Amino acid sequence: MEGDQAMMQYKSNVETVLTKLKSLLSPKAVDDMSLEIAQNLYASNARRVHNEGRAVSGSPIGKYSTKAAYFKAAATRSIQPKGKTGKTTFKNGKPHKTRYFSNGYRGYKSALGFDAGRVNMQLTGRLKADWVLLRSRNGYVIGFASEYGKNISEGNEARFRKPIWGVTAEDKKVNTIIINRYLAKLK
């Protein structure tokens, strides 16, 4: 891990709620509950963003660009270098290192075998692998383990102009159910 600066932080009243719960529950119960909530948020974000292609609001993250562009052919063996005219070498005989896609990144993702109809943050799997749940001194931390994940996530949230990773309304409902279940054990 390249430092705490790579971890994403979300503002919520969880700390206030946990402080109050600490006075009611045993330290082990608070830790167990915190872990369950963290695991729920971790899994929810991974599934929603990387599999379903949805932002925090529940809306689609966005759409892939269809502006013509060149992409590295080395990203996968299934995409061979080819220029705009369909040739694999330049006039000077040197081979192309990229492939031209007249339908942009959407065409590139489609050629790789992905569902290009929705943005899902999957290409190499590196971003999803960088999404981690770690134990800290104060509980649990969810975020990106490196600057790579932090930068890619921030760049995409800026590009699509919406929060992509975070706590959804559904997550809040599930967290309330978890908290209530632990509180019910007190009775």
Which key features would you list for this structure?
two-stranded antiparallel sheet, disordered N terminus, elongated, alpha+beta, 187 residues
What's the short story on this structure?
The protein is α+β, with helices and mostly antiparallel strands and 187 residues long. It contains six helices and four strands. β3 (131-136) and β4 form a beta hairpin.
Walk me through what this model shows.
The protein is of the alpha+beta class and 187 residues long. Helix 2 runs antiparallel to helix 6 (169-184). It has a two-stranded antiparallel sheet with strand order 1-2. Strands 3-4 form a two-stranded antiparallel sheet. It has 6 helices and 4 strands. The longest helix is centred in the first third of the chain and has 26 residues, at 27-52. It has helices at 14-24, 27-52, 104-111, 126-130, 147-160, 169-184, and strands at residues 69-72, 98-101, 131-136, 139-144. It is 43% helix and 11% strand. It has 2 domains: 4-61 and 121-184, no CATH class; 69-111, no CATH class.
List the helices and strands and how they pair.
Blueprint: H1 14-24, H2 27-52, E1 69-72, E2 98-101, H3 104-111, H4 126-130, E3 131-136, E4 139-144, H5 147-160, H6 169-184
Antiparallel strand pairs: 1-2, 3-4
DSSP strand tally: 4
Proportion of strand residues: 5-15%
pLDDT averaged residue by residue: 87
Helix content percent band? 40-55%
Number of helices: 6
Major β-sheet, in short? Answer: 2 strands, antiparallel
